[in-house]
Specification:
12 helices, homodimer, binds 3-isopropylmalic acid, globular, ten-stranded mixed sheet, amino-acid biosynthesis (chains A, B), alpha/beta, Isopropylmalate Dehydrogenase, 3-isopropylmalate dehydrogenase (chains A, B), 2 domains, about 350 residues
Chain lengths: ~350, ~350
């Protein structure tokens, strides 16, 4: 089992170090190889995703990713900015299925902006298509407008697009995830989110979801417009089970859902391709403002490592152990700064990692 | 002063009737003419926006709009669905600037999903560009893909686009609104929301915002990515002052922001063109589930009529009177079902309208 370890920028190195520590404490044999990515790679090699890093990621069974980005790279041309590394990895590894659980841990209910009764027990799964849509659609660029409101003036444009097989495969992923969750006690429902009252792309999205849904008679399917979904997540997030949507809407809704929990520092994510190869990273970013201070929360990354064990490395039992250890450190009252509240014990990034190892 | 009154579908007729009642109680002379729109117009004339309705709207100084839509029209071809009426009005009247205040009324703090301290005193303004972006961008449709992940398969596509002058004019609207708010005690800040790390359209959007911002040295400008904006609205909505964004992102974020207040039945909106002609409508929809029951909240529509007086009809004093009357009925403890809580008095749509008239 080979793991490519890509810590990246900001707090990335600190939180990935703790996840690696946890992986090493298991009685499993991995080959782990570390490489630069994002701003760190740009500094060293002039590119956020150097060939050598991409090669390592492709050859590995899984990629453990920290975070990329820093304000100081904002002025670079877009192809050289740190976040291009993550877009490049998604594209070159074909990581089309992004899993973003939004879970509210019992002990952290108070951290949410939402009233406790709306958020306690939240356990929903957002599945975001990750290699299509307006993120990668060609053509795109700048040109002189020949029609529209101001012909003759400069305009910029992008193309939103989805093909039928792209929608089919993410639909299967969503229905199968709902089925697994149903077996574990969830409702067994997929909510497909689109904007079919305006967009052609969304109309095809909805049509294909309906078609594929016919193959999963044990799972309920409903549809919601994206503006309404943004509202329902605020109003009654627990009404969702599995939410599936395209790349652009998924970017917005998955972040909204994470923030609802109030503890985005706890939320892992997985991005999978058709061969069970995956990239695993925390849902939060590189947080340059707190980098190097040893206060970042490593739990989202540690839980991402657990997802990696389960999804890509076929080590479900080890994943369970990590997740149980994380629950246990929360029960012990250990908290990094982001989730600290009166009456709990504030710990550093390193101490939190050590505590998880101890609890394994 | 000529007002086109377009009640539309669902609760539209009930809530617009109350707003008309309030307008008639003022000592002002309006010509008001009512026409069908949405599903109601489709039933009568076979089209959601008949020529006669469009003509009336174009000739009027302002349009007072209720709401359109009903599940029963979901199966119609998209050009015949009720919501095409609203898109058609925006397009044909050139209503490029949408004002969506998100205000939390003191008496209704408890209705929010958010903890009271996060939402009490909220008063932010979302300005959404309304005639450009992927909503109207050509080309769009279905075709056989010639590139991408699955060449040869059916795909659907849409075009996101913004021209420089389209962005310039909405930027001016945003900075001027921030200036007016600053004069009334707000911070004087515009937050421009885009996705410039991925989209060409967003990069032009941001560039033009920066350029126009140089003309407003009294107003601060900052930029936020749309995924982060969706999070910050949940985390700390009061940190915003004026948020300006494109049509697609604005659709999502303005609905999210409205729902945060917990009382979307209270929130008006205005959609303006370059000649101060405007369309005024509640931020909520046609709510077919409660239509005809006389329980809908007419206050968002009544407050939309106030915006109409201020923005299009140059009757700021009358607008102030309506807004004060709405505050007064809330203080009296009158509540429609959507904002009812223990200890207040539940009233019908009609009673609420009457109470506002009385409080004028
Ligand atoms: C960094 C950025 C390109 C990326 C995205 O928009 O997909 C990020 O926001 C995410 O959600 O992983
Ligand atoms: C009905 C629909 C086309 C419309 C939109 O997406 O603009 C609505 O959601 C709105 O925000 O006014």
């Amino acid at each position: 089992m080979k793991i490519a370890v890509l810590p990246g920028d900001g707090i990335g190195t600190e939180i990935v170090a703790e996840a690696v520590k946890v992986l090493q404490a298991l009685d499993l044999k991995f080959e782990m190889e570390t490489a630069l990515v994002g701003g760190a790679a740009y500094e060293a090699h002039g590119h956020p995703l150097p060939e050598s890093t991409l090669k390592l990621a492709k050859e590995a069974d899984a990629v453990l990713f920290g975070a990329v980005g820093d304000w100081k790279y904002d002025k670079l041309d877009r192809p050289l900015r740190p976040e291009q590394a993550i877009l490049g990895l998604r594209k070159h590894l074909g990581l089309f299925a992004n899993f973003r659980p939004a879970i509210c841990y019992e002990q952290l209910v108070g951290a949410s902006s939402l009233k406790p009764e709306l958020i306690a027990g939240l356990d929903i799964l957002i599945i975001r298509e990750l290699t299509g849509d307006i993120y990668f659609g060609q053509p795109r660029g700048r040109r002189i407008a020949t029609d529209g409101h101001f012909p003759g003036s400069e305009e910029a444009f992008d193309t939103m697009r989805y093909s039928r097989p792209e929608i089919e495969r993410i639909a299967h992923v969503a229905f199968q995830a709902a089925r697994k969750r149903k077996a574990a006690g969830s409702e067994g429902r997929v909510t497909s989110v689109d904007k079919n009252n305006v967009l052609e792309t969304s109309q095809l999205w909805k049509d294909v979801m309906v078609e594929i849904g016919l193959q999963y008679t044990d799972i309920a399917l409903d549809h919601m417009l994206v503006d309404n979904a943004a509202m329902q997540l605020v109003k009654a997030p627990k009404k969702f089970d599995v939410l599936v949507t395209g790349n652009m809407f998924g970017d917005i809704l998955s972040d909204e859902a994470s923030m609802l929990t109030g503890s985005i520092g706890m939320l892992p994510s997985a991005s999978m391709n058709a061969n069970n190869q995956g990239l695993f990273e925390p849902s939060h970013g590189s947080a340059p403002d707190i980098a190097g201070k040893g206060i970042a929360n490593p739990l989202a990354t540690i839980l991402s490592a657990a997802m990696m064990l389960r999804f890509s490395l076929n080590q479900g039992a080890a994943a369970d152990r990590i997740e149980a250890a994380v629950k246990s450190v929360l029960e012990q009252g250990l908290r990094t700064a982001d989730i600290y509240s009166a009456g709990t014990t504030r710990v550093s990034t390193l101490e939190m990692g050590d505590a998880v190892v101890k609890a394994l």
